[in-house]
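Q: Could you fold this chain for me?
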Amino acid sequence: MDIKLKARYEALSRVIKALSHPTRLLIVEELSRSRYCVCELTEMVGADTSTVSKHLSILKNAGLIKDHKVGASVYYELLTPCVLDFIGCIEDVIKETAEKQLEATGIVTV
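A: Sure. Below is the predicted structure, expressed as structure tokens.
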């Protein structure tokens, strides 16, 4: 594999890894609806501020979200709404896999 191709796959991998946690997926979906401060996201996630901040840092370093300060609060927003298409594609894979498993057991789906 040449250097450019390897770098491309490493960059893709970083973004996919950033999305590979349930809490980060929740944060991405919530940020697709609106911008939120850390305190609001902490309440939604049900974790402490330092944990949520770590998740936000991972998403930011992957280039998925951005932050900006308003007074004493830091607000986050989704930079790349197209990532929701990727999540939708994964949901299609899950649905298709479940349907095939049901068919294999003889259970009919509607």
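A (continued): The chain has a mean pLDDT of 93.
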